[in-house]
Every structure is written in C-alpha cells, then in structure tokens.
Design a protein that fits this description.
This protein has 417 residues and is α+β, with helices and mostly antiparallel strands. Helices cover 63% and strands 7% of the residues. It has 19 helices and seven strands. The strands form two sheets. A five-stranded antiparallel beta sheet has the order 3-4-5-6-7. A hairpin with a 2-residue loop joins strand 6 and strand 7.
C-alpha cells in the first residue's frame, strides 16, 4: 500500500509539472524563431561556399581542407565527415561538438521542418525534467522532486532556450545532472559505476561545449568541501584515473580531431571569428577586465542579477522589448525559500540524503553561476544552471516545510508547494 501511494504521489507531481511545461511551451515564445547560427549545423551540415581571397584570378575558398573523409572549414560546421553527398558534422566550432545536433539533423532531413526540430528539443527538455524529478525523488525526497519539477517546468529560461537554441544546451544540462547523480551514487550508495559515469558526464559535457568546464569545476569544489557529509559506510572503490581519462578522451575525440586538423591545415588567409579559440580567449580576457558599459548589452555585467531576479530586463537591454519595471515578486519569494531552507539544513546538520544533498547543491549552484558568469555574461550560458537551481529550490522548500510539518506528510508537501 505504501508503495502504491508513493508511486501515485510521484506520478501526480510529475504529471502536473508535465502539463504546465507543455502548456507553457505551446503558448509562450511564439514570436521568436530559432537562432540562425544554431540551425547552421543541422539544417546545413555542409557550410556555404565562402570566398576568402583571390589568387591569380582564382578564388581561395574557406572550405576544402581535406584529410581522407574529414573536411575542415572556416565556417560552421568547422569539421565534418564527407562521404559522397552525405555530410556528418563533427564540430560546430573549435570548442563545440556537433553530436548533440545529430538527432535534429536526422529529423530535419526527413521532415524539412524547423518546427519539428523545435518540438524535438521541447520533448528532450521534458525528458530532462523527468530525470531531475527521478533523481531528487530517489536521493532527496518525493516532495523535493515534485517542487523542483514544477519550478523547472515553469522556468522561463528552460522553455525559452528549448525553443530558440539546439541540442547543445540540452546536453550540457543533462551532463551536469549525470555528474551530480554519479557523484551522489558513489558517495551515498558506494556505487561501483560512479567513477565511470562521472567520466562519461565530463566527456559528454565537454563534447557539447567547452563552457561545461565552469560547471565541472564548481561541482568538484562543492564535492571537496562536503566530503565529510555522508553516512557511515565502507569506502567506495578507488578511482581509476587512467580509465576516467580514457573515457573523457574518447567522448571528446571530435573536438581534438577538429583542433588537430585545423592546426595541420593552417589555412591562410584565416577568418577572424568567434568560432575559433583565439578570439574567444580574447573575449574572455576583455570581458573580465572591461567595465559594464563597454560590453554588448546582452553581455552586460548586470546579467547575473537579471537572470536571478528580473529576467525581463535582459530582453529590454538586449532586444529593446518593452517590459514592466521592478523585480519579479515570486522570484524574490523563491530566493527567500532558498536561503531559509539552506540555512536550516546547515544549522541542523542532519545526516540524511536529502539534507546532505541540499548542502552540496547550496555550494554547487552559487559557484556554478559565478564561474559561468565570469566565463561569459550572456544568459544562455547562465541557463546551464537552471535545472540545478530548481533542484536547490525543491530541496530548500522541503527543508523549510519540515520546520512546520512531519516527514512525508501531505501537509509538508502542500507547504513546500
């Protein structure tokens, strides 16, 4: 009977979150198309011909540096496999793999519809929502999983970037979940596959985009600071570093191949583009050292506070949208829940999976946001942290509700919501 009731609670909370998510996905972000440079990978797996220069009245093209079936280009996608008419992109640019967009490429080749690709990404977002709910229900509590799923379903950035960007952002968020899940399985259950799963998560995240590194660093720091926070158990299996490095190298092979091929090709003249690491490094350094007024509006130094408290301000600054003034009141309430629930978990120091997970996430998410913001101020980079923020909110809401209600009670669930 208890098992049936638990299953029903999980199903109902997930069903509610799913209905909210699909309803908002259908009825919002309707006047915005897909970002053009994102569609370049799956809609045009072979880059358009680009003339870089003229040599003896002959054009010098930006495409055509071949090494067997591998073709290096100076426009997206930078690296692809060309077998007759079939083009398979390997890397969008020198720091972004193209594997995350293979499903979109296949679907677009079959349907020829950009709308179908948007639907695919929305559905993949729904799958990610289900996985976060499952993780928190197993390793936190059913109440935390339900609250987090509902918060994620209603979060503007989670829906907005499913509809205007591509598979890269989905894979970045999925890799972060896998890393957190594998770490927690190893720490609280002695999971023997934990280290391999962590390596797979690192490989998938870096394959999706090198900007996964800030999230990875944040999780490593948070895990190190909370090494003491686990139940009494035998030490987990020792880490096999060689195996982990091998797995990461294997998953990121398309990026290494792209870098090696372009280094060997050494095209001249060379396009100056943010698709290459050199210019991105310069942007990173200039962004860290610049004043807020000297950066593009969408990369303003205010983006972190906008992302957390008043996201509509970003649309006003970046796109000239007309928005109501002031902070979003419910986001302020959410910040209060985060602080209250987290403070209670640290004060009580309960050795339970839910409380310990809350303490870990309360360190991980702020570090993740700060490091992502330092790397790039744009909101679509900060949005990598959206699912983790919602997980933090779910755990905090359950913790705060615990001060006024018994464990696993209907009253606690309603208070958390």
């Amino acid at each position: 009977m208890k098992r049936t009731e638990g299953f029903s609670r999980i199903s109902l909370s997930l069903l509610l979150a799913g209905v909210v998510y699909i309803a908002l996905a259908i009825n919002t972000v309707t006047g915005v198309g897909v970002v053009g440079e994102v569609t370049a990978t799956w809609a045009s797996p072979s880059p358009p011909p680009v003339v870089l220069d003229w040599n003896d009245n002959a054009p010098v093209m930006g495409d055509g540096q071949t090494m067997g079936p591998f073709v290096a280009s100076q426009t997206r996608p930078l690296e692809r496999i060309q077998v007759g008419p079939l083009a398979i992109p390997l890397a969008v640019n020198s720091y972004t793999g193209a594997v995350a967009d293979w499903p979109a490429q296949l679907l677009y080749a079959v349907t020829g519809s950009r709308t179908s690709v948007v639907v695919l990404h929305v559905l993949l977002g729904g799958l990610l929502l289900m996985l976060y709910h499952r993780f928190l229900s197993l390793h936190g509590s059913e109440i935390a999983g339900g609250v987090a799923a509902l918060a994620l379903a209603a979060d503007w950035s989670f829906i907005y970037y499913r509809k205007v960007l591509g598979g890269t952002e989905v894979l970045l968020q999925a890799a972060a979940l896998l890393a957190l899940w594998a770490l927690w399985s190893r720490r609280w259950a002695g999971g023997r596959h934990g280290t391999s799963a962590i390596a797979i998560a690192v490989g998938l995240g870096l394959l999706a985009k090198v900007t996964f590194a800030p999230s990875l660093i944040a999780l490593a720091i948070a895990a190190g600071l909370t090494r003491w926070d686990h139940r009494d158990m035998k030490p987990p299996a020792p880490i096999q570093w060689g195996r982990m490095v091998g797995i990461v190298t294997l998953f990121t092979l398309p990026i290494w191949l792209t870098l090696a091929h372009h280094a060997l090709a050494s095209p001249s003249p060379h396009i100056v583009s943010h698709d290459f690491l050199g210019l991105q490094w310069e942007r990173l350094i200039s962004g860290v050292g610049s004043t807020w007024d000297s950066t593009p509006a969408r990369e303003s130094g205010n983006t972190l506070s906008w992302f957390l408290l008043e996201p509509l301000r970003w649309f006003e600054a970046a796109h000239g949208a007309e928005v109501p003034p002031g902070y979003a009141p419910w986001r302020l309430v959410g910040v209060g829940v985060l602080l209250g629930g987290t403070a209670r978990a640290w004060w009580r120091r309960e050795r339970t999976p839910s409380a310990a997970l809350l303490r870990l996430v309360s360190l991980f998410v702020p570090l993740q946001l700060c490091l992502l913001w330092v790397a790039n101020h744009d909101l679509h980079h900060l949005a990598q942290a959206t699912p983790a923020i919602c997980a933090w909110l779910g755990l905090s809401a359950e913790s705060l509700a615990g001060a006024f209600s018994p464990p696993r009670s209907t009253r606690r669930g309603l208070l958390a919501l």
